[in-house]
Design a protein that fits this description.
four-stranded mixed beta sheet; alpha+beta; Glutathione S-transferase Yfyf (Class Pi), Chain A, domain 2; binds S-(P-nitrobenzyl)glutathione; single chain; globular; 59% helix; 217 residues; 4 strands; Glutaredoxin
C-alpha cells in the first residue's frame, strides 16, 4: 500500500531538515519503506481537506490505505511497530526505546520549542531579552542531564532505535543556538545520527524540495 506523507511546499528553514517531515522521512528510510510526499502550502494546511487529516492544520501527516495519522511521534512509532529496524524485539528493550522517544518529545523538546518561540514569535516583546537566557538555561539543564546519561555510549540504550531517531531530531534544533556544541558527547551523538545513510537520504529528499521551491520563487 502506498504511504503518503505531507510536508511544507517551502519550509521556513529553507531545507535544513528541521521541519518534522524529516523525522518521518528518516523513519521510513530506516524501515526501507518507499513513500510519496504531498506538498502543502500554508493556505492548503488550513483548508478543510487537510484539516480532515490534521485537526491542527499542520504537517506532517501520514496516509496508508484507510489509515490517516498525524503527530510525528505517533507516525514514527507506527512505522517502528510495523517494520523492523527501529524497535528491539526484546520486550524490555522495546519498552525502554519507546520511553526514550517519549522523553525526547515530552521532556527534552519543550524548552527547545520555548526558546524558538521566545526568539522568533515573541522576539519583539519588551520582556524577550530577559526571557531568552532563562529558557536557554532550561535547555542546558536538560542537555546536561542527558549528556551524563549518554556518557560515551553510541546510542541511548544499546542498538540505534526509534528513541535515538527522535532524540537526535530534537537535539538538532539546539545546534543553531550553539547550545548543542556545549555538550561534545551530545554533538557527537547527533553527528552519528546524521551520518546514518537513512538520515542522509531523508535530508537530501527534503532539501531537494526546498531547493526547487526557492528556485521557482
Ligand atoms: N506536535 C506536532 C508534531 O510533532 O507533528 C507539531 C507539528 C508541527 O509543529 N508542524 C509544523 C507546522 O505545520 C511544522 S514542523 N507548522 C505550521 C503551522 O502550525 O501552521 C515545525 C517546524 C517548523 C519550522 C521549522 N524551521 O523553520 O526551522 C522547524 C520546525
Amino acid at each position: 500500500m502506498t504511504i503518503t506523507i505531507t510536508a511544507f511546499e517551502c519550509s521556513p528553514d529553507g531545507g535544513k531538515g528541521l521541519a518534522r517531515d524529516t523525522r518521518v522521512r528518516w523513519a521510513l528510510e530506516e524501515a526501507g519503506q518507499p513513500y510519496e510526499v504531498r506538498l502543502v502550502s500554508p493556505q492548503a494546511m488550513k483548508a478543510p481537506a487537510h484539516l480532515r487529516l490534521h485537526p491542527f492544520g499542520q504537517i506532517p501527516t501520514y496516509e496508508e490505505g484507510t489509515l490517516a495519522l498525524f503527530e510525528t511521534g505517533a507516525i514514527v512509532f507506527h512505522i517502528a511497530e510495523r517494520h523492523t529496524g527501529l524497535l528491539p524485539t526484546d520486550p524490555d528493550a522495546r519498552a525502554r526505546a519507546i520511553t526514550w522517544m517519549f522523553a525526547a518529545l515530552s521532556t527534552v523538546e519543550p524548552p527547545i520549542l520555548e526558546l524558538s518561540n521566545a526568539k522568533f514569535a515573541e522576539g519583539d516583546k519588551p520582556w524577550s531579552a530577559e526571557r531568552v537566557p532563562l529558557v536557554a538555561d532550561r535547555i542546558r539543564q536538560r542537555l546536561g542531564q542527558l549528556s551524563v546519561r549518554l556518557g560515551d555510549a553510541e546510542w541511548l540504550d544499546g542498538a540505534f532505535s526509534v528513541g535515538d531517531l527522535i532524540m537526535v531530531s530534537v537535539l538538532l534544533r539546539t545546534r543553531p543556538s550553539g547550545i548543542l556544541g556545549e555538550f561534545p558527547n551530545l554533538a557527537a551523538y547527533v553527528a552519528r545520527g546524521e551520518a546514518r545513510p537513512a538520515y542522509q537520504r531523508a535530508f537530501a529528499a527534503q532539501l531537494a524540495v526546498n531547493t526547487a521551491a526557492r528556485q521557482a520563487s
